[in-house]
């Protein structure tokens, strides 16, 4: 019997706290507008389009933070299924392997177990979205010139979470009754990155067949 989604996605109190937008700010209003469109049942392709008169960087910021929250939560539910024993390498099937690289501990691409890769990824993204120099929250503070490149890197790495979850842990998603929820999150994410050409098509290849089936 399928579990209530609220039960599924709130069962583990060790999830990192959600990044939130401050009420009263323009970005909070934009977030509410995006969420209202999402809940209204509109076509997801239409939901991701930049509203007239809105800043592309604000729209990107709102969605990057929201996708981080959602995908982090989805992976968090897979914690019991994804271990260093079951997933000794961060991969998407036998053809795709993802190595971790950052500016601190892993200056050269490192082959890591999936849980370790995921922990580093979520910490790295959290550090960026909480950094006022990268994701400014104060009115009138400009985004950095490389903001869209930063978003591309974040979204590319988040896509790899979908790859790993769909290819290695989808049975677990089905067992929890969360398939429809995860599929909707994926479609929303996919239409967004396609609308703004944010992720290289080569990165999308591991899920191409599934994407053609559920997104077209």
From TrEMBL:
SUPFAM superfamilies per UniProt: Mob1/phocein
SMART domains: Mob1_phocein
Gene3D superfamilies membership: MOB kinase activator
InterPro entries: MOB_kinase_act_fam, MOB_kinase_act_sf
Top-level taxon: Eukaryota
Keyword terms: Metal-binding, Zinc
A family per Pfam: Mob1_phocein
Binding site for Zn(2+): 82, 87, 164, 169
Protein name: MOB kinase activator 3C
């Amino acid at each position: 019997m399928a579990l209530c989604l609220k039960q599924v996605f709130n069962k583990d109190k060790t999830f990192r706290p959600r990044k939130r937008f401050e009420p009263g700010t323009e970005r909070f209003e934009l977030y509410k507008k995006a969420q209202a469109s999402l809940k209204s049942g509109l076509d997801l392709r239409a939901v991701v389009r930049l509203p007239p008169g809105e800043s592309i960087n604000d729209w990107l910021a709102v969605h990057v933070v929201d996708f981080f929250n959602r995908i982090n939560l989805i992976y968090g539910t897979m914690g019991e299924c994804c271990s260093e024993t079951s997933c000794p390498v961060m991969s998407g099937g036998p053809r795709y392997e993802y190595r971790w690289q950052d500016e601190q501990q892993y200056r050269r691409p490192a082959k890591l177990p999936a849980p370790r890769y995921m922990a580093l990824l979520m910490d790295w993204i959290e550090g960026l979205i909480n950094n006022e120099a990268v994701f400014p929250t104060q009115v009138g503070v400009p985004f950095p010139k490389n903001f869209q490149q930063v978003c591309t890197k974040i979204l590319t790495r988040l896509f790899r979470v979908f790859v790993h979850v769909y290819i290695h842990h989808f049975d677990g998603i089905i067992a929890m009754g969360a398939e429809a929820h995860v599929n909707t999150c994926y479609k929303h994410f996919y239409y967004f990155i396609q609308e703004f050409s944010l992720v290289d098509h080569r990165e999308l290849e591991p899920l191409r067949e599934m994407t053609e089936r559920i997104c077209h």
